[in-house]
Amino acid sequence: MSDSTVAPIVVDHVTKSFRVRGPRRGSLTAVDDVSFTVRPGGAVALVGASGSGKSTLAGMITGSIRPTSGSISFGDIPVHKLHSRGLRAYHRKVQMVFQDPYGALNPLHTVGYTLARPCQNFLGMSARQAADRVAELLETVGLTPAAQFAAKLPHQLSGGQRQRVVIARALACDPDVIVADEPVSMLDVSLRAGVLRLLAKLRAERGLSLLYITHDLLSARVVTDEILVLNAGRLVETGATKEVLQHPQDPYTVQLLDAVPNPFAAAAGTSSASA
């Protein structure tokens, strides 16, 4: 279980610009002077449409992309300055759940092998210890009987089951923070609620900090306490999840809410933003 006294992730005036090649040479600013904190045990939603800079920001927080300016820290660790060995240690504490459960798993490796590797590589477990840990992880994410799922290959699983394996892999080295980048966007609607409930349960039971990245404001209410709305690389609205959903202040936030289908809107004579 994660230590309840873990450090916050602090994003401090971060900007990321990319060079544009070709006839229109110049630079493109993907993230523009963004600051926020993911507190220990907290759950923050980073919300925006495609191209708003969400994934670029996630890449900087996980250390795969370096900011052009500003800083990112995890306690006293300067994430924006980490290299190979430092990143390895950091990734034990901060794990990623990717959007695509189909591309995130090696099709040639069984579920058991996929989950055992981080247990051995990060925690130094023996093969026997790792096997016990795999069974525990599969039970944690609701894939039982564990022995049967451990023997399966990814193509033998449904999309929802694959995403649960991805979550189990993120939990394997007992992290303090989970960065979930659109974790349900590629799943059938019928499967999304189950995965969101799992993330909420894991956060509550393990004291995990969660950065939940999504384009769907309404899904954020299941797993987060705070919402940050990102538009064209800039934060345009922040606040408690319930408050932002019920009383959005920025026109862009209203647009995002209106874009979410509401099956009750027609019968009630209301817009999706009022749900």
Please characterize this protein's 3D structure.
The chain is an alpha/beta fold and 275 residues long. The chain has one domain (9-108, 153-274): P-loop containing nucleotide triphosphate hydrolases (Rossmann fold, 3-Layer(aba) Sandwich), CATH 3.40.50.300. The protein is 37% helix and 24% strand. The chain is built from 11 helices and 10 strands. It has helices at residues 54-61, 84-93, 111-123, 127-140, 146-150, 159-171, 189-206, 220-223, 241-246, 251-258, 265-268; strands at residues 9-20, 26-38, 43-47, 69-74, 77-78, 94-97, 177-181, 209-214, 226-231, 234-240. The protein has a 6-stranded mixed β-sheet, sandwiched between helices. A 4-stranded antiparallel β-sheet has the order 2-1-4-5. Helix 3 crosses helix 4. The longest helix is centred in the C-terminal third of the chain and has 18 residues, at 189-206. The protein is globular. Residues 263-275 have low confidence and may be disordered.
CATH class reads Alpha Beta
Low-confidence stretches: 263-275
What would CATH call the homologous superfamily? P-loop containing nucleotide triphosphate hydrolases
**Fraction of residues in helix:** 25-40%
* Average pLDDT score: 89
Biggest sheet features: 6 strands, mixed
**Radius of gyration, whole Å:** 19 Å
Second CATH tier, the architecture: 3-Layer(aba) Sandwich
Number of helical regions: 11
* CATH domain fold name: Rossmann fold
